[in-house]
Design a protein that fits this description.
Elements: E1 3-10, H1 15-30, E2 35-39, H2 49-70, E3 72-79, H3 81-84, E4 92-95, H4 99-102, H5 111-121, E5 125-127, H6 130-135, E6 163-168, H7 177-187, E7 194-197, E8 207-211, H8 215-224, E9 225-229, H9 239-246, E10 250-253, H10 262-268, E11 272-274, H11 279-290, H12 296-306, H13 312-328
């Protein structure tokens, strides 16, 4: 049976998660590890979050069992707590937010207690942000924060920014699309357009929906827009906000529950416009960002400097210097 350093059991359920799993595998490979990334086969759509998570957990277990039948990894990483819920054998757990926080009430009726056991049984927790560990109840299990690497999507971020604003709304309620649209309608100037990515809807003057986009197409939008705006009711990580900064777009947002890794950065480095979610406050912040006179190239340079801890070089150093030794040390 072939030996392996690290087996990653992933879900790849969203573009962001797919990219995060690829980045983790790439960082481990660059650190010199022999890595295999296996992904669950997407289950059929069901009506509730509890059943959705059960389908994904079963699919992750099947993927893990198949990989373990062919390999003997020295370490296993389950990508998300959902992938670990029905694990065939313990392993490290990488996650952005726990079910304890993002599956309230009946939505997490079975996931929360199982997750709590898995977090106690895991040899290593790998949250993407310190806030995720806090939401998980600050387990006493050893842990290491490993952010998702973010890089510019093109060699230059100085392209003409001919789109006023972009928002991402695959989950419109969670992402606060209603708040964004109300603010947009309140402050939009003639000729300005808001592009809503990830969702179909009725186009009208000043508003265009793209439907589902490949990740590369979404990043292309970020390179074209002056402002990325979002008003989440909960933010598990905020990768789109970090990608917007990497591609030189100004970021307008609201505070929200959740780890929201990008929020402290936006506040601390005065790169973003953080406002309360009411129409007047959010609209005012959006208008201020749209009218910001800072040269686009200067802003993009400041944004890249600010996201240095999230860049691939910084994350690679954590993976090579700390994560891999922890995974492979008995």
């Amino acid at each position: 049976m072939p030996s392996l350093d690290v087996l990653i059991v992933g879900l790849g359920a969203t573009h962001g998660l797919h990219a995060a799993e690829d980045e983790l595998a790439g960082a481990l490979l660059r650190a010199g590890a022999d890595v295999m990334l296996t992904r669950a086969v997407a289950p059929r759509d069901v009506r509730t979050l509890a059943l959705t998570d059960l389908g994904w957990a079963r699919a992750a277990r099947r993927a893990a069992v198949e990989a373990l039948a062919a390999h003997e990894p020295r370490a296993i990483i389950y990508s998300t707590t959902t992938a670990a819920l029905l694990w065939p054998t313990p392993g490290a757990i990488r996650f952005d937010a726990p079910a304890a926080a993002n599956r309230p009430g009946r939505h997490g009726i079975w996931q929360r207690p199982v997750e709590a056991r898995r977090l106690r049984q895991s040899p290593l927790l790998i949250p993407q942000d310190p806030g995720a560990l806090v939401e998980a109840g600050s387990p006493t299990v050893p842990s290491l924060v490993v952010p998702i690497p973010v890089e510019p999507s093109a060699a230059s971020t100085t392209a003409v920014r001919d789109i006023a604003a972009v928002t991402y709304a695959t989950n419109p309620y969670k992402k606060g699309l209603d708040r964004v649209l109300a603010a947009w309608d309140a402050v939009r100037a003639p000729g300005e357009e808001l592009v809503v990515a990830g969702l179909r809807g009725p186009d009208r003057e000043g508003l265009r929906y793209t439907g589902t986009l490949e990740h590369e197409a979404f990043r292309a939008l970020l390179r074209q827009t002056k402002v990325y705006v979002t008003a989440p009711r909960r933010e598990d990580y905020g990768i789109a906000q970090l990608e917007a900064l990497a591609d030189g777009a100004r970021v307008v947002t609201t505070p929200s529950p959740g780890p929201y890794a990008a929020l402290p950065l936006l506040r601390r480095d005065d790169l973003g416009w953080v406002a309360e979610p009411d129409t007047a406050a959010l609209g005012g912040a959006l208008r201020a960002a749209l009218d910001d006179p800072t040269d686009d190239a200067i802003y993009a340079e400041r944004a890249l400097d600010a996201i240095a801890p999230f860049r691939r070089t910084a994350v690679d150093a954590i993976v090579a210097g700390d994560l891999l030794p922890r995974l492979l040390t008995p």
